[in-house]
Amino acid sequence: MFHLFTLVSFLALYTSALSFGFLAFQFIEEAFPDLLNYGRSMMWGGGRNAIAGLIVAFPLYLFLMRLIWKETKGNAKNLESGVRKWFTYITLVVVAGIMLGDLIAVVSSVLGGELAVRFLLKAGTIFAIAGVIFGYYLHDLKRKAEDSFSPRAKACVLAVTVFVLIFIGYGIVLTGTPGQQRALQFDQRRTSDLQQIASAIQMYWEQQKKLPQGFEDLKQQQFTYIQSVQDPETQAPYEYKVLGEKTYELCAVFATDSSQYEAKTKAPTPFSAEQWNHAKGPVCFTREVQPLLR
C-alpha cells in the first residue's frame, strides 16, 4: 500500500500544481485584462475545472502525504524505497519541464505584445509554484527516518493550504456559485431558442410572404429547425405576438441580467449578441423580418 500511496500522491501533486497555476493565471487575466483578447471570458470554463481539481486533488494530496510520513517515520526501508525516490526525481524533472514550458509560453506572449505587468506576475507565479515543490522534495530527499515534522514545515503546509483556500474561494466568486451557473445556462438556452425561432420566422416569411400566426405554422414549415418553443426550466411556451405586417414580438422570462455577465467577464459583446441582451424577469424582443437583397 505504501507504493500505491506514493504513486497517487504524486498524481494528486501534479493535478494540484497545474490547477493552482491555471487559476493564478486566470486571476491575473481578470485583474489586468487584455483588451485584444475577446475570448477571455470563455476561459472560465477551464477556471471551473481548475477549482474542481484543487477541491479534489489538494486535500487528497495532504491526506496521502500524512500517511506516507507515518509510514516512513522510523522506517528506513520505506524512506529509502526505490519507488519513492524514483518518483521524487521524476517529479522534479516533470515539474521543471512543465514550468519551463509555461515560462517559454509567457515570454512568447510578451514578445507578442502582452502587458509587462502580466508577464511579471505570471513569471512570478511559475517560479513560486516551482520553488515550493522543489524546496519540499529536495528537503524530503535528505530527510532521515528519525526526523520529526518540524514547526517550520508545518507552517509552510499551513501557508500553502491557506493560499489554496483563498484561490478556491475567489475563483468561486468570479465564476459564480453552482446555482448562478445553472441560472446562466438556462438563460443561454432561452436566448438560443429565441434566436432559432427568429431565424425560422425569417425563413417562413421569405417563403410565405407573411408572418406565421403561431409556432405551429413554423413546425409545419420545411427546412426550419427549432430546438424548443418552451422554456427549458418551466416548460411554459415562449410568447409570440404579431405586431404588424413585418414586425413581431418574442417574449421570455429570464433568471439573470445579461449586462451583469458582460461586466463580470469584461468581454466585448458582438453586435449580433447585443440584440438579445436582457434584464432579469419578463423581457420582450421586437423584431422585423428583412427582405432578401437581390
Walk across the major sheet and give the strand order. Answer: 1-2-3
Name the helix and strand elements from N-terminus to C-terminus, one letter apiece. HHHHHHHHEEHHE
Helix share, percent: 55-70%
Number of helices: 10
The total count of strands amounts to 3
Helix-strand category: mainly alpha
The main sheet comes to: 3 strands, antiparallel
Bin the strand percentage.
5-15%
Q: Which shape, going by the Cα principal axes?
A: elongated
CA-CA gap between termini: 75 Å
How large is the radius of gyration?
Answer: 27 Å
Briefly summarize what is shown.
The chain has helices at residues 2-31, 44-72, 76-79, 82-111, 116-141, 151-175, 178-208, 215-220, 258-265, 271-274; strands at residues 239-242, 247-254, 281-288.
Q: What topology does this entry show?
A:
Layout: H1 2-31, H2 44-72, H3 76-79, H4 82-111, H5 116-141, H6 151-175, H7 178-208, H8 215-220, E1 239-242, E2 247-254, H9 258-265, H10 271-274, E3 281-288
Antiparallel strand pairs: 1-2, 2-3
Protein name: DUF5671 domain-containing protein
Domain DUF5671: 5-136
Keywords: Membrane, Transmembrane, Transmembrane helix
